[in-house]
Every structure is written in C-alpha cells, then in structure tokens.
Amino acid sequence: AQRVTQPEKLLSVFKGAPVELKCNYSYSGSPELFWYVQYSRQRLQLLLRHISRESIKGFTADLNKGETSFHLKKPFAQEEDSAMYYCALKRPGNTGKLIFGQGTTLQVKP
Amino acid sequence: NAGVTQTPKFQVLKTGQSMTLQCAQDMNHEYMSWYRQDPGMGLRLIHYSVGAGITDQGEVPNGYNVSRSTTEDFPLRLLSAAPSQTSVYFCASSSWAGPKKLFFGSGTQLSVL
After folding, report:
1. Which residues of A12-23 are buried (b: 16+ CB within 10 A; e: fewer)?
2. What is the pLDDT of residues B55-98, one digit of tens each?
C-alpha cells in the first residue's frame, strides 16, 4: 500500500533561515511525487512535482529513492512562505489515486 | 474562469440527516475527486472518478456515495450523517492522464451535531 508521512506538524523558522519540510513515502515501485501548498484564505494548489525537476518560488525537492524521501527545501525562508504544505504520491501511469500526507504548517517569523 | 465550484461553503447537520455536497468544474477535466481534511490526518481521498459513468473508492469511502453522470459534476452524498463526518471537504479535478495537477475547490465546512 502506498503511504506518505510528514513527521512534523509544525515547523517554525525565522525569516532568512533555511527550510526543510520532510516527506517520506512507502511504495515499492517508482512513484510520482508532488508538493501542494495552501496559503491562508487561498485554495490548495500544486507547488512542484519531482518529474519536472523545477524550482518554484525558490523551493526545490529531490526524490531520494534510497531513503524513500522527497523533502522540500528553500535556502532562505520568506514570511510569505507561511502556509500548510502537503506532500503527495501517485503510482506511475494512469492510476486514479493521489495520496496525501498529514501536512506540515510552516510558520516564518519576522 | 470559475474553475472548481463547491456548494455550500458551510453546512450544519443533525446526526442521521442526509445531504449532498455539490461540485462542478468548467475545465472539461476527466478526473474528479473528493477529499476530507481533518487536523492531524491531512487530506484523505474519499471517492474519485476518471470520467462520466466511472467512479471508484478512495481511502475512506464508508458513509459516502458518489455518481458521475456528466463530465462537469461530481456530487458527494452523505446518506446518514454521523459526527465522525464533521470535516472540511474538498473537491478537486485534473485533466487526464492521472491526477497530477489537481485544481481544488474552496471547500465545504461540514459540522454534524
């Protein structure tokens, strides 16, 4: 069964500090992994996906198959990064399930 | 551009009542899904649909029914509401192939007393 674990409910950092939001997954094959973000009073939206290997709003995430992790990183946090972040996993191919983790609230203090 | 529209935004039910949460999208997306969001539990998939006439169960389907008679609409029915169904419900859609970039609705906050 596929499972996504985000071990931190809350991560609090100061502006300008590095940020790492942890995501570990359980799946025996090669999954597709995503980060979604929910800013205050906004809809949940896609932040980035591992297959694109992109940097969005300064965030990057690398898939580590050996450690089954997909941690989200940003070198210098900004106050506007404060939000709820969800890691999500999908099996490869045209399957119908996108499974989310428990979510981590990032609080960036001034 | 409306995107994904959910109604109602808020609802209070008594135990045992039934109701339907509405979801409509205007992006011609094949894939639609329902999630519930609970503190500490994250988002959990209730049901999903890969096209009109096709639905399947997610992680927590018990107590919920869905149907997909058109591409645009994907209503979620609570047949006999229970306090455990108190949650925030999100509808989301995606163009096929596969639910990669999901577009979410604004959510329905449901309380069951």
Report:
1. ebeeeeebebbb
2. 999 999 999 999 999 999 999 999 999 999 999 999 999 986 56
